[in-house]
Structures are given as C-alpha cells and as structure tokens.
C-alpha cells in the first residue's frame, strides 16, 4: 500500500475509534443524568415527612424545620430543587451529613481510601489466582486439577461473604492468630495487613466467577482450528497458550469488569464483618439513620464508578481486538 493510502487508512481508523469512544462517553453521561434524577427522587420517595426524615433524631423546633427547608430548598419547585442539587454535585458541594454534622464530601473523603484499597487488593488477588487457575484447568480439562478448580469455584460461588469472613476470622485471627481481628490499622503496611483477610473474603467469590469465565473461554479457543493448525506446525505449547489466552481475553475482561461492579455489595458485608471504617459501613449507617444526603451522594458515586469501569472495559476492547479498531463496532 502506498504512503498516501496508508495515511488515509490510519486517519479513517482513528476517526472510527474516536467516534466509538464519543458514543460511549455520551451514553455514559446520559445514563448518569437519568440515574441522578432517580437518586434525587429518593429523598421525596422515602416514606414519611421529608423534613422529619432530614431532621433525624434532632429536635424538630420551628427554627430547625425552617433551617432544613432552606438548606434543602424544599420551598422551591421540584425541578429547581433538582437543578440546585445537581449544580452542587458538579461543584463538589454534596450537602451536610445530618448524622455526622460534617460536609458529606469530608465524610466520604475520610473513608474512601480504605474501600479503594480493599477493592483493589481483592481484585488483584482474584485475578492473580483465578486467571492462571482457569487457564491450567482448561489446558487439563477432566484432570484432577480441573476437578479441584471446579470444586473451589462452586464453593466460592455458593459461600456467603459474611460466612466466609467469620470462618477466616476464626481460623486466622482467633485460632492461628496470624492476622488482626478487626479495624483498619495505623496506616501504611499495618493497614495493608489488616486488609488481607477482608480482601481474601471478597476475592473468593470474585475469583470463582473469573475461574469459570477463563476456563470456558480458553476451552473454546483451544478447540479452534487455528490452535490445531499452530500445534501441527510445531509451535511450542507455551506460545500456543499465550495466543489462545489473548483471543480469550475479551470475554474474560467483560466478566471481570462486571464482577468488579459487584464488589460494592460485597464490600458492605466485608467491612461490617471486619469493622472497617470504609464507604460500605458509612452507607449502611447512613441508611439506618436516614442520613439522606450521604445516601444520595454514595449511591451516585457508586453509579459513577460502575460507569467508569464499563468505559474502561470498552477501552480495553480497543486494545485487545484490532477488528473493533478497524470497524469501530464490537465484534
């Protein structure tokens, strides 16, 4: 192909990729806008009087009621309340926590580090164990290794998070005394040490799903004609496995990104079991005490995180599959 034709082909490819990314980003923004409306409606859909819900356990004097109505713009039309609330979110003003009596942004900032570290550690442990185990299980389908991996995956899928957490606490905190019982530690490596058992608790369920996905995708690739041809040409088995794993990566990435979104629910249980001061326990306490400003902000934050994960998964597709880069649409 001549140089001008090559340049035009690359330009078309970049335009196609740019169009695909723009559509994805606009789709994510539209979904978040709709979710923000639904989440804002939580305050008005909650049973009981809005002012009493926002006041919580505080005395409902006329001055307190007037302050609450002014703070949350309750005398304005609904659409204006929503626009003011949305404007506050976009400028970083998430409101005031009724229960903690501090800005919601500060309450989230104080706890987000623990939750992010816990989720990241659990995800890394799950990937580091599950992907190699799934690949080996597919390469030796029907062997004792395959049966053992399937058994572990079934146990991981069926075991409740809180039950796994209590079992690990008994074995490795009370009986063997390798890990601390509860709390987030004093920072740095001590905090990381406190997060090991909660992360393993979360990683067990995540890893079980990823093992199943990896095994299924790898078996499909290993039974493909191009693998048979590669083996017939004498290509080393390790190289064949790398090629098959690369082609199986898209369903694995899809599954891993979807599984990652479910960390939020599991995090609430894990943080409660191990008494970790993260966003999960903050959300749980805020729901119990009807701290609506915190619940709204955390719910929207979770939606944003899930949307970003989905967008990152789309970007990984572009890196993994050249057919998507050329065509601009998923294969």
Structure description:
This protein is mostly helical and 331 residues long. The chain has 15 helices and no strands. Helix 13 runs antiparallel to helix 14. The radius of gyration is 25 Å and the shape is flat. The two termini are 25 Å apart. The model has no long low-confidence stretch (mean pLDDT 81).
Summed up:
With 331 residues, the chain is mainly α. It is built from 15 helices and no strands. It is flat.
Instruction: Report the biggest beta sheet as strand number plus sense, adding barrel if it closes.
Output: none
Morphology: flat
Detail the poorly predicted runs: none
Helix run count:
15
Q: How much strand? A: under 5%
What radius of gyration results from the CA coordinates? 25 Å
Average pLDDT reading: 81
Structural class: mainly alpha
Portion of residues within helices: over 70%
SSE pattern: HHHHHHHHHHHHHHH
Query: What is the CA-CA span between the terminal residues?
Result: 25 Å
The tally of strands reads 0
């Amino acid at each position: 192909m001549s140089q001008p034709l090559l340049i035009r082909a690359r330009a078309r490819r970049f335009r196609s990729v740019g169009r695909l990314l723009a559509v994805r980003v606009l789709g994510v923004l539209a979904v978040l806008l709709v979710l923000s409306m639904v989440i804002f409606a939580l305050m008005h859909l909650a049973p009981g009087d809005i002012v009493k819900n926002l006041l919580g356990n505080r005395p409902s004097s006329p001055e307190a009621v007037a302050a609450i109505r002014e703070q949350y713009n309750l005398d304005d039309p609904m659409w204006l309340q929503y626009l003011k609330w949305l404007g506050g979110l976009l400028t970083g003003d998430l409101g005031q926590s009724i229960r903690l009596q501090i800005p919601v942004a500060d309450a989230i900032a104080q706890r987000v580090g623990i939750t992010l570290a816990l989720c990241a550690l659990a995800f890394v442990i799950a990937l580091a164990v599950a992907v190699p185990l799934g690949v080996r299980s597919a390469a030796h389908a029907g062997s004792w290794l395959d049966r053992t991996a399937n058994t572990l995956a079934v146990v991981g899928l069926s075991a409740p998070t809180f039950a796994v957490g209590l079992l690990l606490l008994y074995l490795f905190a009370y009986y063997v005394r390798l890990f601390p019982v509860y709390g987030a530690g004093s920072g740095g490596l001590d905090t990381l040490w406190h997060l090991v058992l909660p992360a393993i608790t979360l990683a067990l369920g995540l890893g079980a799903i990823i093992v199943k996905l990896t095994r299924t995708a790898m078996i499909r690739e290993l039974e493909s004609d191009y693998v048979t041809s590669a083996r017939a040409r004498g290509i080393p088995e390790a190289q064949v496995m790398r090629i098959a794993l690369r082609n199986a990566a898209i369903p694995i990435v899809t599954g891993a990104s979807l599984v990652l979104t479910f960390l939020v629910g599991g995090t609430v249980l894990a943080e409660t079991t191990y008494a970790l001061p993260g966003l999960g326990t903050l959300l749980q306490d805020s729901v119990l005490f009807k701290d609506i400003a915190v619940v709204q902000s955390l719910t929207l934050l979770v939606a944003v995180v899930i949307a970003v994960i989905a967008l990152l998964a789309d970007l990984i597709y572009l890196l993994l599959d050249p057919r998507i880069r050329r065509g601009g649409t998923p294969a």
